[in-house]
Amino acid sequence: MDQLFSNKLIKEPRKADNIEFRALEITDFEKGFSELLQQLTEAKFEKSKFLERFIQMKNQPDTYYIIVAEDITTNRICATGCLFVEKKFIRSCGTCAHIEDIVVDSRYRGKNLGLKVIEHLKHIGNTLGCYKLILDCDEKNVKFYEKCGFERKGVQLSCYNTTIIPKAKL
Question: Where does the record place the N-acetyltransferase domain (predicted)?
Answer without folding.
Answer: 19-170
